[in-house]
Design brief:
Helix content is 46%, strand content 18%. The chain is of the alpha/beta class. The structure holds glutamic acid (GLU). The site of glutamic acid has 13 residues, from strand 3 and helix 13.
């Protein structure tokens, strides 16, 4: 095998292995290997210079055995059909392991949003909903933010959806909304907060002292930034941070801070400069120095396929927490297994986002809103319950955390499909 497996093939491979280990009817894999519905649309946008551009948009609904599809929409130049399918598959597993009443969904638009004006982004967002609204709804398919999308984009989605449907009740069709439009406290922070909940739990199990651990973080977007914030609150230090850096050939460099990074200060610099390049309270190091450094804990929190075979061979780390979706290729995963590196897989580590999206959906239906403390307390309880169940399977089947998480999630989906008479 080479590093050419696309994310869908790697998701399929992981599902196959888990189904075999659970000794499930082969029909389960046959159903789960492809999404149940995939839609591709063309979105025409009138650009500011008067020209017309047509963008490709996608939405995949992986499996509805447990409920409506749920998952984010990303705006990124590399978005493609296979990627969206894979990401929707992972969403089914996240919902399964957290016992949420959802199947997986995911969507995206192939676009580099940095090249568009605010008006063009708004027009593109509205066009996405115009193309898909018949397939969305709080009981059908519920989008949320993902890479390069946020509460503002969700607001355009809500507005366009409500215009097309002529009613004002379906706030729960989208999650990750701003508070004033029915969002939930704690949703913005939820993914990073969950990465820290799972990291804390696994570190304790593995005998790693979080406060003295050498931690490396890749990415300072929504997931990376809140991961850093909550690690800092735990008294842990992130001293290595890998960032985007257009001045480098590989597009990345890293920062080193002897005393550990401060969330507020990074955030402030990034807001002012739109990038962390040149952040004055740290020393610049190369991307390669970052990936070959000795870490207790490494947290990739950017995009998929970052930890390749080549990187895995040189990694010197005890625990990896996958803040991003699919950051480790299957080949790299094998190498890391041989090196006895423990990995908290994406479907567990970053599942806090969809969990709090679920709380938002529930709150929208009741019209009753919880405090941030209530949300975070509940998030910690629900995620801890899932990790405990996963570690039980890990010990019972003598396997790694990733496979145990897949098995834990697939068991639930398979049971629902069986009861529904799908196999
Ligand atoms: N985009 C996030 C994810 O990949 C959140 C999805 C959601 O909240 O529905 O898990």
């Amino acid at each position: 095998m080479t590093d050419t497996l696309n994310p869908l093939e790697s998701a399929q491979l992981q599902i196959k292995k888990a189904c075999e280990k659970l000794n499930l009817n082969p029909a389960v894999y046959e159903i789960l290997k492809e999404p149940q519905r995939v839609i591709e649309i063309s979105i025409p946008v009138k650009m500011d210079d008067g020209s017309l551009k047509v963008f490709k948009g996608y939405r995949s609904a992986h499996n509805h055995a447990l409920g409506p599809s749920k998952g984010g929409v990303r705006f990124h130049q590399n978005v493609n059909l296979e990627e969206v399918k894979a990401l929707s598959t992972w969403m089914s597993l996240k919902a399964g392991l957290l016992a949420l009443p959802y199947g997986g969904g995911k969507g995206g638009i192939a676009v580099d949003p940095k090249k568009l004006s605010d008006r063009e982004i708004e027009s593109l967002s509205r066009g996405y909903i115009r193309g898909l609204y018949k397939y969305l709804g709080e009981r059908i398919d519920i989008p949320a933010p993902d890479v390069n999308t946020n509460g503002q984009i969700m607001s355009y989605f809500v507005d366009e959806f409500i215009k097309l449907n002529g009613e004002n009740e379906d706030l729960g069709t989208f999650t990750g909304k701003p508070l004033i439009l029915g969002g939930s406290l704690g949703r913005n922070e939820a993914t990073g907060y969950g990465v820290v909940i799972t990291t804390k739990y696994a570190a304790k199990k593995l005998g790693i002292d979080l406060k003295n651990a050498e931690i490396g973080l890749q990415g300072f977007g929504n997931v990376g930034s809140f991961t850093l914030k909550y690690l800092q609150e735990e008294g842990a230090k992130v001293r290595y941070l890998s960032i985007r850096d257009e001045s480098e050939e590989c597009g990345r460099s890293a920062l080193y801070s002897e005393e550990g990074f401060d969330y507020e200060s990074l955030q402030k610099y990034r807001d002012e400069h739109k990038s962390l390049v040149g952040y004055p309270k740290a020393k610049k190091i190369s991307d390669q120095e970052f990936w070959t450094n000795k870490f207790d804990i490494l947290i990739p929190a950017a995009l998929e396929n970052i930890i390749t075979e080549k990187i895995a061979k040189n990694l010197n780390v005890k625990l990896i927490a996958e803040g991003a979706n699919g950051p480790t290729t299957p080949e790299a995963d094998e190498i890391l297994k041989e090196k006895n590196v423990e990995i908290i897989p994406d479907i567990l580590a970053n599942s806090g986002g969809v969990l709090v999206s679920y709380y938002e959906w529930v709150q929208n239906q009741y019209g009753n809103y919880w405090t941030k403390e209530e949300v975070q307390e509940k998030q910690e309880k629900d995620m801890t319950k899932a990790i405990e169940g996963i570690f039980e399977i890990k010990d019972q089947y003598k396997t790694d955390i990733r496979e145990a998480a897949y098995m834990f999630a697939i068991k639930r989906i398979a049971e629902a499909m069986k009861l529904r008479g799908w196999y």
